[in-house]
Known about the structure:
By secondary structure, the protein is an alpha/beta fold.
Amino acid sequence: MTAVTADAFRILVADDERAVLDAYRTVLCAINPSSGKGSAIESLEAKLFGPPSTVEPASTFSPVLCRGGEEAVETIRSRRPEDPAFPVAFLDVRMPPGIDGIETAARIRALDPEINIVIVTGYSDSHPREIAQRVPPLDKLFYISKPFQKMELQQFVLALTAKWKSDRASRLLNQELSRRCQELEAAHAEVVTACERAEFANHTKSEFLANMSHELRTPLNAVIGFTDIMRAEAFGPIGNDRYREYLDDIYYSGKHLLQMINDLLDLSTIEIGKLRINIESISLDDVIGGVASLMRIQAEQAEIELRQEHRAERVRLHADEHRLRQVLVNLLSNAIKFTPRSGHVIVATDIDSDGNLSISVSDTGIGMSPSDLSLVFAPFQQIDQVMARRYGGAGLGLTIAKNLTELQGGALTLASELGKGTTVTLRFPPDHYSAKSELYLVAKG
Length: 445
C-alpha cells in the first residue's frame, strides 16, 4: 500500500466579532476527517477487499482567525513559502475601526492573485459591480450572506479549495509547457543556425572546388595535348620504346585525372546551383545509339556484350542532349567496369503502365548488397576500399548522374543484387516526351 501525504491548507477569516470567529472555527474544524472512524473503515475495507494500492487521504483545513482587515493583510504578507497555502479567505465587510472588508480584499488580492475571496456580510454599502472592479478577477470573488449556514460554508471551502488546486495545477502545467516551448524554440533556432552555417560552408567549399577544378583543367589539357602530339611523333621519332611507354602512361593518367576533375567540377557546379540545363526536343534513339557506339570499344576490350533493346520507338525527349549523354556514358562506363568477362550490358527503353518513359542500363556484374545501396548516391563513396583500389574512380559518377537526371525533370533509381548485377533506371513523366511504342532490337556488339 502506497501512502500519500494529505494536503494541508489554511483558511483565512477576518471578522470583528469574537463569536463569529468562534463559529468559523467550529464549522471549519468539522471538515477535517475523524481519524478514529477513518481507521476503523480502512481496517474493515482492508479485511474485505485487501489493502488498496493507493491511499488518498482527505485534505485538512486549519482556520486562521483575524479580528480586523489589517491583521488579515499582514497574515498574507508574512506567509513563508514553506507554510501551508491559503486557498480561501472569508472577509466581513464592516470591521470597525480599521479598513473594511472590500479594502482588505483589494490589498490581499494584490499580495496573492490566486486566492479565492468570499465576502461575508448581511449588508454592504458597495454594489457588487463596484466590488468586482476593485477586487478582480470575477471568477475568484464570491458572496455569502450572514448568518451563514454550516453546510454552505463547508461546501464553499471544499469547492473553492478544489478549484484553487485545479487552477494551480493548470498554471504550473502552462508554465512547464511554456518553458518547454521556449526550449524547443531555442533548439530549433540553434538547428536553423547550424543548417545555415553548414549550407554556407558547403556553398563556399563547392565554389572553391569549382574554381580549383577550372584552374587545374587548363594546365592538364596542355599536358594531355602535348603528350598526344609526342605519342604521334608529329615532329620526329621518339627513338626509345621506354619513352613511348612513359608517354602512354602520362597520356592515359592525364585523361583519367581530367575526367575526375570534370566530375568534381560538375558536382560543385550543381551544388551551388550554377549548372545550366538546356532543355530541347531530342531524338532518344540517336542519343542512345551514339553513346552505345562510343562505349562499344570499351566493352569489346573488356570482352563484354553491349546491346540495345528499345520498346519505345522514335522517342522525342525534352532534355539536355549533352547532359543526357553524360549520364548514359557514366552509367554504361560503370556497368562495363563492374561486369566480369563474358557478361553483358543492356541499355533499354520502355514505357510503363503509367505512361512514364524509362531508360535502363542493366548489367550482370558484381552487384551490391542492400546495406551498400544506402551509400551508392553519396558523393565520394565507394562500396569498400578493396573495390576502390580495384576499379578506381572518385565515386562521383552515380551522384552526378542522379543530380543531372533530376535537373532535367526525371528520376533515377537503382536496383541491385550482390553477385547478380545492377539495373539503373531513368524515368521521365509523360509530359516530357512523345513516342510510338514497339519492340525492336539493335546494335549488338
